[in-house]
Amino acid sequence: MLSRRNFLSLYNQDKKESKQTSVTFNKPKTSNNPADILITIFQRGAADGLNLVVPYGDDDYYANRPTLAIPKPGNGAGSAIDLDGFFGLHPDLSALLPLYENQDLAFIHACGTTEGTHSHFKNQAFIERGTNDESFGSGWLARYVNSYQDEGSTAFKSVAMNTATPSTLAGANAVVALSNIEGFDILGPVSEVDAISTQLSNLFSSQRSLDRAAQATFSAVDIISSVNTEDFPIENNAQYPDSSFGIKLRDLALLIKAGIGIETASVDIGGWDTHDAQAPALSALAQDFAQSLAAFYADMGDRMANITIVSITEFGRRATENGSGGTDHGTGNVAFVMGGGVNGGQVYANWPGLSQAELYGIGDLSPTTDYRTILAEILDKRLFFNDHQTAFPGFEVPEYLGLCATKT
Amino acid sequence: MNPLNRRDFIKQTGAVSTGAFALSLMPTQLLASNHSSEYLPSSPLSTHLINRISFGINDEMQSLYENLGYKGFVDYQLDADNIDDSEIEDYIAQNLPTVAMSPREIRDLIDDGSLNQFKAADELKTATFLRAVYSKRQLQQVMVEFWNNHFSVFHFDGPISFLKTTEDREVMRPLALSTFAEILQANAKSPAMIYYLDTFSSTKEAPNENYAREVMELHTLGVDGPYTHVDIDEIARSFTGWQINQRTGEFRFNSEKHDTGEKIVLGIPIAAGGGVTDGEQVIDILANDPNTAAFISYKLCRHFISDNPDKSIVDSTTAKFTATGGDIKQCLRHILLSKHFVLSRDQKLKRPFNYLASVVRTMNGDVLNNRASRVTRFVLDALGHQPFNWATPDGYPDTASYWESTTGLLYRWDFTNLFCFDELEGHSYDFEQLISAPYSPENILNQIHKKILFREMNAIDQDFLLDYLNQGLSVDEVSLSKIKGAMAIVLGSPYFQLS
Fold this sequence. Notes:
The complex is a heterodimer of chains A (408) and B (499). Chain A is α/β, with parallel strands linked by helices and 408 residues long. Chain A has a domain at 36-127 and 264-391. Chain A has 12 helices and 12 strands. Chain A has helices spanning 4-8, 49-52, 59-64, 97-101, 120-129, 140-145, 190-203, 209-225, 244-257, 278-300, 371-383, 388-391; strands at 37-43, 53-54, 81-82, 88-89, 105-112, 158-160, 176-177, 264-269, 307-313, 333-339, 346-349, 369-370. In chain A, strands 1, 5, 6, 7, 8, 9, 10, 11 and 12 form a 9-stranded mixed sheet that branches. A 3-stranded antiparallel sheet of chain A has the order 2-4-3. In chain A, β3 and β4 (88-89) form a beta hairpin. The radius of gyration of chain A is 22 Å and the shape is globular. Chain B is built from 27 helices and 6 strands. Chain B has a two-stranded antiparallel ribbon. A two-stranded antiparallel sheet of chain B has the order 3-4. Chain B has a two-stranded antiparallel sheet with strand order 5-6. The chains are: A alpha/beta (408), B mainly alpha (499). At the A-B interface, α1, α5, β7, α7 and α8 of A face α1, α2, α12, α20 and α21 of B.
């Protein structure tokens, strides 16, 4: 993977006098916002929820997927791990089992939306916007973070562990998007770099979104340069996979420990679009996903009491397997919610069934719980935000599932 | 004049939450489209045109424009085949040999251990950047990039690491300025696309719908096009048996795997008993659909005019597309000669690849060596805009809202700072050619306007730059490091990030 340390190695080897600038500023005070830190994960490509959290108690699942189905628990290697007598966990998600048993992890099945399509791009945009009203150019999380002002907020109020800004945070007043914290600094000769930064900053002083991004960059550089990464080692022997997703969560954990004011964070994990030869691809992804989250959970330790993580994907996959050993685009799916405030150890599902008569549209798992119902409950109970029409315009939030405890 | 700048403010107050973080509530519904550029003085029309139809203005393009005039320059660039491009092509042929190889030649070299399995992919990425920087056929390169992005495939998806080389050479480059139908037809038979969207595994017993969906949603009709799931099924059946020859890596049609039944696509019947012609007919139907004309015209206008192009220019381009059978040259000429184009100054943010190429072009940089190519690939990875590395079939976003990010700007500045100070591995440029004596602040500012920005900054920003230059003044001359710093500042500023 990329390392900013490598960026420094780009220096012409004959010219050693240039070094990074080092600017020290006071550490920002952490936010007074007592809300949970909210981490949203987007599993891009439409993860196959039926094989991740397996409805092994539904015989139609096996009828629909003669070669791809995960065997019922107790059928040797590769079989599902029982969760509640009806649902079972994909064996490559086993790293998440202790979290579930600690009641810090819940699954919501048959989750999705009845307003969506089978287009990855359209559905991702819809879900990240939080409304089907395309006149909104902003994301649901952006509208939430823009809804309040807090003197203690820093440039890191909203952070995307990514090179670019995901649509969930599009339109946020300030977003830091960073893919790697090593050497996150403005480079150039020591004698000039501060003066160059000053003038660059002056030239980006308008109120355009480009200028706001530039100002966020200067602030983020200042803050990151105040963090000594060695002060925040990985704790509790957490073992992050050396994957893109694992590294993002590892870096995010460090930034949270450093107390630089992260209030929300967004992380992507891609590759879930398994039209062809699904089994090995899904196994590898499931392992990466579960081990990374389990490592983050271990690393955060007691801090998890004030962190809520929700992981969603654009839609589910077809109930029946296709002829290429894969699955095509569907509707209903599974969502993951974890954190100290989560009423975990349960699979929340108003299960619609998988027989031909019960399937939705052209053969999909019916979405009996809208994804926004989950997000609305988390925003309300863990982040003290219940203006649902701001976050999810046009969506009538039904009764909550009881996914999490009300934060006090 | 010396207004309090942000860093001074932080130093004086110890505060961190300043500037943009004195958060004011804004109507968030408006934010994503808030790209007014009124605060930058208009660039000359020549600068505007050249920046949009190339990977960055430089002296050579400016002289050509002065000789040919506006229309003449557009037509000259549209007639790409008559522009001699042998210099960079000779370099590529000699130094990046896999770019000219067939899939079989590349795979044989990988199999016998004489070629790293990602070497061909790396060489294609490098050739793409070098063409952007050095090709004389700039508008053609812009359109090659446009089509490669429109028909995006992912270099890390199995054999695409070397199949893409053929697609770039035999589909995108020769057809970039042809008709849309020709490009679409050739792309449908391109093994890279056949692999990427799973057509290769689609059989009459088990048709795969991946390509069938995306060819409508992403390549032709657009996501709001008038298709149903039945159309997806019918198109999937039409392309059954379209495979890749395992030996040669070329397209093959396997009639044994083809569903010969009748299909009805968008209401148009395709008679039973057909073979490879079924898929070809589907392509014809899609290429000629009015929704396709509108969708491709919209994307062209978004690319060349603004992130939210006016409906009237999209409509008139659509009419041109329809009237000319999807002739790309005619559509481009229509767009580039429109008043919408002329009035769209600074409404596009350069994407990272374009930004890097434009820095090197404007500075007349020399990056023709392996060390420089490694650096370029690294920086493009860090910026998230490496050619052929977008994992999903929708291609890299073509709007500023996606690219305006902290990491995005930081790495642009880092690249440019190091480049200007001759600190970037493998990169060099001829300083004397750009800036000549006397090194007075006013003369340097003047040359920066003329030879780097090809436009003037507003008075306030000129003062900022003069302040900076004056800090390095001794015996009436600005120090070389201040001059280089001034170049880094303007190249990192909105005057050069926007086009």
